[in-house]
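Working notes for the structural subgroup meeting. M.R. asked for a predicted model of this chain before we commit to crystallization trials. I am recording the input and output together here so anyone reviewing the notebook later can reproduce the run.

Input as submitted:
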Amino acid sequence: MHETAEDLVKVQRLLDESYRVAGTHLREVITPERMITAKELSEKLIGMRLLVLSTVTRDCRPIGGPVDGVFYRGDFYFGSSPVSMRFLHIKRGSHVTATHLPGEELSVTVHGSATPIDIKAPQHGQFRQTLLDTYVPRYGKDWEKFLDSGPLYARIDARRMFVFFMLPN
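Returned structure, recorded in token form:
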């Protein structure tokens, strides 16, 4: 878990505010007993988590696809090719939605804006190290060469975050 106490406060405020303004149906599904704290959420999101990331096409159609997501310091980050359609869409308009849905017991959805980051910049050094710690054990030392070859990364600056959690039967 990479979140600081301040990060957890930020995420908890986001969860609480998102729930406060949620629609009736969502509040019927995500009841208080199906909610978890920011700390509990952060503990469940360690490592790489598959996300379905939705962007918006030029003619305003939503389009979604899988990306590797990393929850770091209270925000989801994802990477893709610089020539991917998702980054072309983000250059035109940064609005995104991402959902992590590993099974019916947990769902995490964020709505926000994608902000591209430079993983070679000093201010993102700890995030870069998190990527290396996540992927090198899985893919080997050459993964760092891949990372340096130019994939783009972005942070999702969430305006809303909805989390559903239910213990399995």
